[in-house]
Write a structure and sequence with these properties.
- The structure is a single chain.
- By secondary structure, the chain is an alpha+beta fold.
- It has a domain at 7-56.
- Helices cover 34% and strands 18% of the residues.
- The protein has four helices and two strands.
- The chain has helices at 7-20, 25-37, 41-50, 53-56; strands at residues 85-95, 101-111.
- Strands 1-2 form a two-stranded antiparallel ribbon.
- A hairpin with a 5-residue loop joins strand 1 and strand 2 (101-111).
- The radius of gyration is 23 Å and the shape is extended.
- The two termini are 40 Å apart.
Amino acid sequence: MKQSRQPNDAYIDYKKALEIYPNNHYLQHDVWRLANALQMTDDVNQFKNSLARDVTQVNSDSIQTKTKNQGQVVILVENGIVAPKQELSLNLPIYTSRNDMRFYSIAVPIYQNYLPEYPL
């Protein structure tokens, strides 16, 4: 997967997520980190007053930033609760402005409408 490397866009999205989940320490840390990295001094001052105590005690000089060769790994394990994703393919006849018919193929992911039953 190609990274877009747009920290301003990420910062905006993190701030929106923080509005929804204000007590999420992971989001707080990422917002704090990006605010400092992007030199958003007004936001940094605001976050000092509003974020959780453990995040605000960290000043911008002591935040550990990841180097180019470091990162974070998130692993999601799907363990039988969600049905496997399948593909639905459609060939759509579309008429052009000259009344010529062309077929366009699209594929969308779908999930079967069933839940497995588990013994109690």
